[in-house]
Amino acid sequence: MSDSEHPISAAARTRDRIDTTKPHSARFWNYFVGGKDHYEVDRQIGDEIKEIFPGLVDVAVTSRQFLGRAVSHLAGEAGVRQFLDIGTGLPTADNTHEVAQRVAPDARIVYVDNDPIVLAHANALLTSTPEGRTTYLDADMYAPEAVLQAAADTLDLSRPVALMILNTLGHVADHDEARDLVRRLMAGLPSGSHLVISDSTATSEGMIAASAAYNASGAVPYYVRSIGEIAAFFDGLDLLDPGIVQVPEWRPDPRTATDPATAAVDAYCGVGRKP
Questions:
Q1: Which residues contact 269 (CB under 8 A, 6 or more apart)?
Q2: Residues 220/117, Cβ–Cβ less than 8 Å
C-alpha cells in the first residue's frame, strides 16, 4: 500500500518538515495579526521587532484588511468568480474564499503554498459553499507553469482569474526574478484577469531595521522594496484606481477605516487588470 493511502504517514512527514527552532514568516505574521499558530521562537523575534519598529503590526493588520476589500471588489463589482491565491499563509479570519464566497457563493478559490506549516493547517482553508469550490495546492511559485497546470483542475483558465500574491514576493531576493514570476503567472491567465499585490516597503528607517533584524534571525529572508519596484509588477496591466498606494488607502471602507495615526504604513499595494 502506498504512502498516499496513509493520511497518518503523510501528516507525520509534514510535521517532520517543520522547524520550530527558527522563526517562520507565516507563524510570525500569524502572531502579528492575532492568530494562535506560532511558537516561542516566533513570538521572541516578533517582540524584538515590535521594540525596533512597532509599526510592523499595523502593516500586518492593514494588509489583511486590504485583502478583504480587494477580494470584495473583485467578486462584486468586477464580477470575478475565480481566485488563485499564491503564498497563502496560515488560516485566520476572513480568508480569500470566505470573503469571495460571501459576495459570490459560486466563487472558486485555489490556494497555493509549499510551506509545511501551511500544509499542516490546510484543512482549515478547504471549506466552501455548495455552489463554489476551494482547493489547496502544495506547490512552488518558482514553477509558475506547473502551478497554473495544477490550478486548472479547479479553475477554468479561459475565464478571468484574480491572481493574489500578498506579502509573499519579498521572499524572492532578486527583483527581476520576482517580476518574471509574476509575468509568467499572468501570461497563463486570460484578458480580464486581475493581479493583486501587497508587500512591505523600504519607506522608513524603522521598516528597514525591522527587515534586517528579521533576516538576521535565521528565518527565510524577506526583502523590502521601493514603491517603484512594487509598481513594476503591474507593467502591462491597467491599474485600478487609486493606483499604487499604502494599503489603508486602497478604497478604504468608511466603516472600518484605519486610525489616521496608523494609516501611514510601510506597505504598498495595487490591483491591475489584464487588457
A1: 63, 66, 70, 196, 197, 198, 199, 230, 244, 245, 246, 247, 250
A2: no
| pTM for the model | 0.85
Q: Which residues contact 249 (CB under 8 A, 6 or more apart)?
A: 242, 263
Our measurement of the distance from residue 124's CA atom to the centroid of its chain's CA atoms, rounded to an integer in Å, reads: 16
Cα first-last separation, the chain: 49
Residue 140, Ramachandran bin (φ over 0: left; ψ between -120 and 50: alpha; else beta): beta
pLDDT digits 0-9 by tens, 88-124: 877 677 899 999 999 999 999 999 988 777 777 777 7
Q: What CA–CA distance (Å, rounded) separates 35 from 37?
A: 6
- Grid coordinates standing for 34? 492575532
What SS3 state is found at 161? coil
Residue in 150, 36, 11, 14 with CA at minimum distance from that of residue 93: 36
Cα distances from 58 to residues 30, 120, 259, 267, in angstroms, run 13, 27, 10, 9
Q: Rg of the chain's alpha carbons, rounded to an integer?
A: 18
- Taking the C-alpha atoms of residue 13 and residue 21, their distance in angstroms, rounded to an integer, is 17
The continuous run of DSSP H or E covering 84 comes out as: strand 82-86
User: Helix (H) and strand (E) counts for the chain?
Assistant: 10, 8
Q: 201: which strand partners?
A: 225
Task: Note the pLDDT tens digit of each residue in 153-211.
Answer: 999 999 999 999 999 999 999 999 999 999 999 999 999 999 999 999 999 999 999 88
Helix, strand, coil percentages in the chain from 3-state DSSP, rounded to 5: 45, 15, 40
Contact status, residue 167 vs residue 196, Cβ threshold 8 Å: no
The single-letter code of the amino acid at 218 is G
